[in-house]
Amino acid sequence: MSFGSPGPFSLRRGGCAAASEAEAAYTGAVKSTSTVWLVGMMGAGKSTVGRKLAHQLRRRFVDTDHEIARAAGCSVAEIFASQGEGVFRRLELAAVKPLVGSGAVVALGGGAVAQAELREALDGSVVYLRAAPETLLSRVREAESRPLLAGLSADERLERLRGLLELREAAYGTAAITIDTDLLAPSEVAERVLGALQAAEPARAPGGLR
């Protein structure tokens, strides 16, 4: 996936390890041009749920963090460490723009919709996967791969998650659909998202969103 000309925020590739590609990048034919955007905090389950939802809808699945890492040749953590969050956010916006109108199921990074320009560019359906900070902490196992949690103790990670959630809650709240995920398995979350999408677009035929 190419994001076009790297421009003034191109990455220095020296010292960057090759990033792994997103798993199951394609799950089938795209039947609709209405993109589904999954938003929420790290640990909300966006990637896991997104793959399941894409399979159910027979659509392409894209994880923007994985796409950025693949294109840059660096992990997200390495981009943050070597170039800073500002550069990553610009790369994130560049990764999202080609997906508008694609009909894909897209898992966005936790801070993506906090960018007004990115948030306003989203088409289709925006779905917020909501979870309490304690739930998020229990799901985030490898903190070192999470730039905003790296180097923190468990208590400090919990406080950071609370703070980030408070900062981003208003942006997440702009989503048309909100699903509480605390007590649900990923497959259950995917089913609820699918039901909400079908309820929101009853006029699609045959087969609704499929």
Q: Uncertain regions: pLDDT < 50 for 5+ in a row?
A: 1-15, 17-31, 203-208
CATH class: Alpha Beta
The total of helices stands at: 8
CATH superfamily: P-loop containing nucleotide triphosphate hydrolases
Number of domains: 1
Could you tell me the number of beta strands? 5
What is the residue-mean pLDDT, rounded to a whole number? 82
What proportion of the residues form beta strands (DSSP E)?
5-15%
Biggest β-sheet: strands ordered side by side in the sheet = 2-3-1-4-5
Structural class estimated from helices and strands:
alpha/beta
Using the CA coordinates, give the radius of gyration. Answer: 17 Å
Please, could you describe this protein's structure?
The protein has 210 residues and is α/β, with parallel strands linked by helices. It has one domain (22-189): P-loop containing nucleotide triphosphate hydrolases (Rossmann fold, 3-Layer(aba) Sandwich). It is 42% helix and 10% strand. It has 8 helices and 5 strands, in the order βαβαααβαβααβα. The chain has helices at 46-57, 64-72, 76-83, 85-96, 116-121, 133-139, 154-172, 186-200, and strands at 36-39, 61-63, 105-107, 125-130, 177-180. The chain has a 5-stranded parallel β-sheet. Helix 1 (46-57) packs across helix 8 (186-200), helix 2 packs across helix 4 (85-96) and helix 6 crosses helix 7. The longest helix has 19 residues, at 154-172. The model is unreliable at 1-15, 17-31 and 203-208 (pLDDT under 50).
